[in-house]
Amino acid sequence: MTTAALALLMSGAITAPAASASSTSAVSSDEPTLPEAPKMVVSIEKLGKTMRGVRDRTHLLTDCDAGKGGTCSIEKSFTVTRTVQVALGVSKSFVSAELNISSSRSVTISARCTSPVFTSDRQVYKAFPSGSRTWYKIVKTYYKGGGKFWKREKSIPLMAFNPTGVSCLMDTKPR
Question: Domains in the chain and their CATH numbers?
Answer without folding.
Answer: 36-172 (2.170.15)
